[in-house]
């Protein structure tokens, strides 16, 4: 019998006769001593303080009767979406009645492994993971699974492990397609007739999103590179050549500097595929420093600084993937799990190299100056940036 089915059965029994003891563990997998169940957490919730050793552990005082401990392991806080996730998980999880252990790993795999270990040890019922490297958490996530803890991949796929129950993300291939379509639209709008001189950038190669963004973009761009509409002047069209280690903006800027110095001394660059906003701004800065006209550049995240640049025309586009919606979706799945109802239904799965993982996808939305006010109509903070 599958563990999740057992969960709801045992939860019912637990509610009726309170037979379960111990702490931690969200799912009633194998009957281990660490186990089990949200019910246990629920009964402990009223008077317990958080068991996490993180300085960011928090009790949710005077809250609903739901309860449970939720760990959130983020890869870093270096882009706005992750910094927002840290704040929004805390707010939304506490509002839902959970205790939280929220940590970020500064792009370091061992640090993230250790943080997840400690979340397991400290009684997490569910651990939400935005991996630094999608392939490097296999054994610690198996350990979580064996301890009866649910694991949800957040924003990024968790690869090569059976220790994952579901992934919540914005369509990553779709994101790349939108970036490439916006690049083409901007070229046609602002750079006259084809052919167009362009360059391609990818994100951090350890992040499973980065090759998917690139793949989505190349399904749109490759045919136009093949027919000569687009000219990648540097000749660098493979993901491995275009990737930006650790999503590091300064590395992207150095690569752009080198490409411009080596290939564009007597020609103009028209456009650049950028995988996110930080890298977009680094690319634009490099072009400005080289005395180039500003190229059409794509982006991702609708970071405040880039929303301003899109509004002023300095960055052509970004892609909005609202963190509050992704966090809310994750919290709704946690609610379902800890209420004993298992993972919600979804038609989408992704093979992570070992198993097919249920995927809960939200739609990314491309943003240009033309539609910014519509896209951000319900986002007063970003609306406030669309001035003058
Ligand atoms: C996220 C992007 C983010 C990037 C770098 C990706 O996995 O989807 O929103 O810009 O990581 O942090």
How much of the residues is beta strand, in percent? 5-15%
Report, as a whole number of angstroms, the end-to-end distance.
Answer: 61 Å
**What is the mean predicted local confidence, pLDDT?**
87
What is the architecture of the largest domain at the second tier of CATH? 3-Layer(aba) Sandwich
Q: What structural class results from the helix and strand content?
A: alpha/beta
Q: Which spans of ≥5 residues are poorly predicted at pLDDT below 50?
A: 1-25, 28-65
- Portion in helices: 40-55%
CATH-defined fold name of the largest domain: Rossmann fold
Ligand kinds: beta-D-glucopyranose
Q: Mind telling me the CATH class of the largest domain? A: Alpha Beta
* Strands in their spatial order, largest beta sheet: 2-1-3-4-5-12-11
Could you say which overall geometry the principal axes of the C-alpha atoms support?
elongated
Walk me through the structure.
There is one protein chain. Helices cover 42% and strands 15% of the residues. It has 14 helices and 13 strands. A seven-stranded mixed β-sheet has the order 2-1-3-4-5-12-11, with helices on both faces. A four-stranded parallel β-sheet has the order 7-6-8-9, with helices on both faces. It is elongated and about 60 Å long. The relative contact order is 0.13. The N terminus is likely disordered. The site of beta-D-glucopyranose has 12 residues, from α3.
């Amino acid at each position: 019998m599958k563990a999740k089915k057992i969960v709801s059965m045992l939860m019912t029994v637990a509610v009726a006769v309170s037979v379960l003891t111990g702490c931690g563990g969200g799912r009633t997998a194998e009957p281990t001593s660490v186990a089990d169940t949200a019910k246990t957490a629920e009964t402990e919730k009223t008077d317990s303080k958080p068991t996490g050793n993180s300085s960011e552990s928090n009790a949710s005082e005077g809250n609903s009767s739901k309860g449970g401990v939720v760990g959130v392991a983020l890869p870093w806080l270096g882009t706005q979406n992750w910094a927002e996730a840290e704040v929004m998980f805390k707010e939304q999880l506490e509002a839902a009645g959970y205790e939280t252990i929220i940590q970020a790993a500064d792009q370091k795999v061992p640090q993230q492994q250790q943080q997840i270990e400690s979340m397991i040890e400290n009684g997490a019922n569910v651990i939400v993971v935005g991996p630094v490297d999608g392939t490097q958490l296999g054994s610690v996530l198996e350990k979580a699974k064996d301890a009866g803890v649910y694991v949800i991949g957040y924003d990024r796929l968790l690869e090569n492990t059976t220790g994952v129950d579901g992934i919540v993300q914005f369509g990553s291939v779709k994101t790349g397609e939108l970036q490439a379509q916006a690049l083409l639209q901007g070229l046609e709008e602002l750079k006259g007739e084809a052919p167009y001189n362009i360059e391609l950038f990818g994100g951090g190669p350890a992040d499973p999103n980065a090759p998917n963004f690139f793949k989505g973009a190349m399904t749109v761009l490759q045919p136009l590179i093949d027919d000569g509409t687009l000219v990648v002047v540097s000749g660098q069209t493979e993901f491995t050549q275009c990737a930006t280690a650790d999503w590091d903006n300064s590395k992207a800027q150095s690569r752009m500097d080198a490409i411009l110095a080596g290939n564009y001394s007597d020609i103009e660059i028209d456009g650049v595929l950028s995988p996110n906003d930080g890298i977009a701004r680094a690319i634009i800065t490099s072009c400005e420093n080289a005395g180039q006209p500003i190229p059409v550049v794509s982006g991702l995240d609708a970071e405040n600084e880039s929303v301003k640049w899109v509004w002023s025309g300095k960055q052509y586009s970004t892609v909005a993937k609202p963190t509050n919606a992704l966090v809310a979706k994750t919290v709704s799945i946690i609610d379902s799990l800890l209420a004993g109802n298992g993972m919600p239904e979804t038609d989408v799965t992704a093979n992570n190299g070992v198993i097919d993982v249920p995927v809960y996808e939200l739609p990314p939305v491309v943003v240009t100056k033309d539609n910014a006010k519509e896209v951000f109509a319900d986002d007063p903070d970003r609306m406030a940036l669309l001035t003058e």
